[in-house]
Amino acid sequence: MVYVARLQSSGECLENVKAQMSHPTFSLKNPNRTRSLIASFCNNNPVHFHAKDGSGYQFLSDILIQLNESNPQVASRLIDPLLKLKRFDEQRQKLMRAELERLAALNNLAKDLYEKINKALEA
Description:
Blueprint: H1 10-21, H2 31-44, H3 46-49, H4 55-70, H5 72-78, H6 80-83, H7 90-104, H8 111-122
């Protein structure tokens, strides 16, 4: 998979990441590919991950919900960008908190995720 960096709007960037996920060689079941694409977007693209509309946070939560079932250890590693909500403005904090609460409401939330989410929500 090759990602060509160029100036993009937030929607275009996220759509590009989603398009990469539909590539035949990508699978959420492959931890290295998951970290390579998803973690890179969330950790190394702050402008688009922290979009004011919260689309990056919702995208990560959707991925974490899927990984909670198949590979909770990878999910536990990927959640870190959402846990840093105190570093951001009030609007983004609300959006991040909403996604953490959405994850916390899962019936079968993995232990590692449960501990991290509850710690972040209590802080």
